[in-house]
Automatic annotation (TrEMBL):
SUPFAM superfamilies: Activating enzymes of the ubiquitin-like proteins. Residues 4-236 form the THIF-type NAD/FAD binding fold domain. It comes from Acinetobacter silvestris. Pfam families: ThiF (PF00899). It comes from the Bacteria. CDD domains: ThiF_MoeB_HesA_family. InterPro entries: ThiF/MoeB/HesA, ThiF_NAD_FAD-bd, Ubiquitin-activating_enz. Belongs to the HesA/MoeB/ThiF family. This is Molybdopterin biosynthesis protein. GO terms for molecular function: nucleotidyltransferase activity; thiosulfate-cyanide sulfurtransferase activity; ubiquitin-like modifier activating enzyme activity. One of its GO terms (cellular component) is cytoplasm.
């Protein structure tokens, strides 16, 4: 109660909302610039079970923006070090970590028991796969990305449009923008991760979905934020596949 007292004091956030957080299972895909911050905020806020997945080790170039890691952690696995940090931050929650890539062989099993998936991965292959499995299993997804000075955030939930409705696969096949290739300011992924974690709390505690079927664009040069509504694409391969698998 003391740990969460500033939250429980909040108008519009009571013990019931706090208990919902405690009961929540959340998967965080990627322990990089976005995953580090999202995971820490959710741990502090009191999300009961956090599962981390990342195959990478910590490199010196990560320290500029990935706030869970220090110079002593270089060479160690991100998922391990982040899990340890979350335990230190909040010993009252459960953490599970996987040192592997999320791929077709493990995605279903990792996602099926979650209440929410938070994607902060650094590549389109994983992003499309997470979207596909979340749509198939009807698990809510909040996806955040940051590149250069720009950030994006959106939510897929229930019968809403999916990531592929918004960004059809064919159009993105040739692009492979990653921070590793194109650079990112220290703050940009942390802004987007904070927004992602905030949305996660609204959803888990209060069942609010302000970015369901909406794309939030954050421009780090002008500090402007725009929210665009988007429609379900009737030709979306992913939505058609999951609809025929689970007819309603
Ligand atoms: Zn779709």
């Amino acid at each position: 109660m003391h740990f969460y007292s500033r939250q429980i004091l909040l108008d519009g956030w009571d013990i019931e909302a706090q208990e919902k957080l405690k009961l929540a299972n959340v998967l965080i895909v990627g322990c990089g610039g976005i995953g580090c911050t999202t995971a820490e905020l959710l741990a502090r806020a009191g999300v009961g079970k956090i599962t981390l997945i990342d195959a990478d080790t910590i490199e010196v170039s990560n320290l500029q923006r990935q706030i869970a890691y220090t110079a002593q952690d270089i060479g160690f696995y991100k998922a391990d070090i982040l899990a340890k940090r979350l335990y230190q931050v909040n010993p009252h929650i459960r953490i599970e970590s996987y040192i592997t890539k999320l791929d077709a062989s493990n995605a279903q099993q990792l996602i099926i028991n979650q209440d929410l998936v938070l994607d902060g991965c650094d590549n389109f292959t994983t992003r499309y796969l997470v979207n596909q499995i979340c749509t198939q299993l009807n698990i809510p997804l909040i996806s955040a990305s940051a590149i250069g000075f720009q950030g994006q955030l959106f939510m897929v939930e229930g019968e809403s449009a999916c990531y592929e409705c918004l960004f059809p696969k064919q159009q993105h096949a040739s692009e492979s923008l990653r921070c590793a290739d194109s650079g990112v300011l220290a703050t940009t992924p942390n802004v987007m991760a904070s927004l992602q974690a905030h949305h996660a709390l609204l959803f888990l505690g209060l069942a609010k979905t302000p970015l369901k079927q909406k794309l939030l664009l954050w421009d780090g040069l002008t500090m402007q934020q725009r929210i665009l509504a988007f429609e379900k694409d009737r030709d979306c391969v992913n939505c058609q596949a999951s609809h025929s698998a689970h007819p309603h």
